[in-house]
Structures are given as C-alpha cells and as structure tokens.
C-alpha cells in the first residue's frame, strides 16, 4: 500500500511538473484557457474577439497616421534639399515609405471590411456598430489627411517647377508655364523647355533648373498616383458604409418583423386562451343547469306521485 501511494504521488507530480526536456512541447500542446489556443487572449467570446481586433485596427490606424506625418516631412526635405545626393537619398526614402504606407492602408481597409460583416440583430449588434463607426471614421479621417498632404505638396512642387522654368525663360507666357508645369506633352512642355535652354544665356543655372524640373515632375507623378489610390480607397470605404447600413437596416427590419409576428402570435394565443376559458365556463354552467333541471324534474315527479296516491301514504301510517 505504501508503495502504491508513493507511485501515485510521483505520477501526480509528473503531471503537475513536466519533464524539463518536454516542457516546451507541453506548453505549446496545452494552450491557456484564457487564450483558447489563439494567442489573442480573447477566449471563445465573439464580442471579446471583436473588441480585440477593433483595438488592434485602431493601433494600426495610428501607425498609418504617423506615416502620413513622415511623408509630409520627407516632402519638405525634398523641397529644401541643397544638392543632388541629398535629393536622391530623400526620394528613395520617400518612395519606400510611400509603398509601406500603401500596403498598410490597403490592409486596414480589408480588416475593416471583415469587421463590418453583419452578425445579426440584438444588443451586441448595436455595440458592434458603434465601435465600427469609430474605427471607420478614424481611418477615413486619416485617408483624408493623407490626401490633403499630397495635394499640398503637389502644389508646392508645381510652384517650384514654375520658378525653375522662369530662371531659364523669365519672359515665359502663362501658356508656356502651364505646359511645362503640367508636363504636358501635347502642349509641347518638353519642347518648350528644350528651346528655352538653347536660347538661355545662363547655361549653368539653366541645366540645374532643368534637372530639378525633371525630378519635380517625377515627384508630382508619384503624388498623383498616390492621390488616385487614396481616392479609390476612400470611395470604396464610403460605398461599403452605404452597403453595410442597408444590410443593417434590412436585419433590423427583419428583426422588427419577427418581433411583430411574435407579438401578434402572443395576442392570438391570449385570445385563444380567453375563448377556451369562456367555453369551459359555459360548459360548467350548462352542466350545472342540467343538474338543476334534472333535480327539479325529479322533485316535481315525486311531488306529483305522492299527490296522486295519498291513501297509500296514510295507510302505511
């Protein structure tokens, strides 16, 4: 018996304290109940998982907003760069940041779309809707800020191109300036600039101005591409908002219909119960009336019988 108890204690200790060589494996094979094996600490509660994802999305939106601020800083550096090496290094960093921000914004849009999938009616549905509205509003506000930043610096780049062109051709007409600033091939912008270079008496300044104009045109093209992508993303989110509101309205309408039908059914049930009670009451009344009538008939019959045979009753006395 002592050996059996000792063996049992050893087995219990082995279950409580894993072998050091297998500790890592057992830690992975036995997920904590609080995480349900998912690692997000949300358990199996769908509402908790929803809140965790909504919070994570808000953190990513903050990162997105920080990137927009950095994009503005790189644009400012580009406009103030003093040499070609600094300009090229800044342009490379700006391009990488723009690509990273594009991927982040697309990822956020997809996650918000997944978050907005209708899950039915009820008190949780309104809680979800309110939280989704907060997340979507913050994301769309950051998208709008990004567009504003890009438009602002596109305008500043165009002004820089105009100043550089006027260094080459101070007497340029508004039409010529517009053709060069907008990099309009149909309007002959490149040809106008080339002709101005050949006729300029400030060759060194003209060549430097020409290089900067080419760089600014590249910056403007990148900004316009970004603006197009942001506009599409913003429109997609606005369209999704309308679609989700229609779906939510449909769900709420259906839920209201079910509630109305349930209420109507309850009223019909109450009426049926009242009718059943009334019918049962009437049956009891009929029963007792029948009993009374039978008793009355019996009493009348007995009275008639004894009234017709008084002698028998007296003789018996």
TrEMBL record:
TM spans (from-to): 284-306
Q: Name one GO biological process term.
A: intracellular protein transport
List the subcellular locations: Membrane
Membrane topology summary: Single-pass type IV membrane protein
Q: Where is the T-SNARE coiled-coil homology domain?
A: 210-272
Q: What CDD domains does the entry give?
A: SNARE_Sso1
- Supply the name of the protein: t-SNARE
Source species: Suillus subaureus
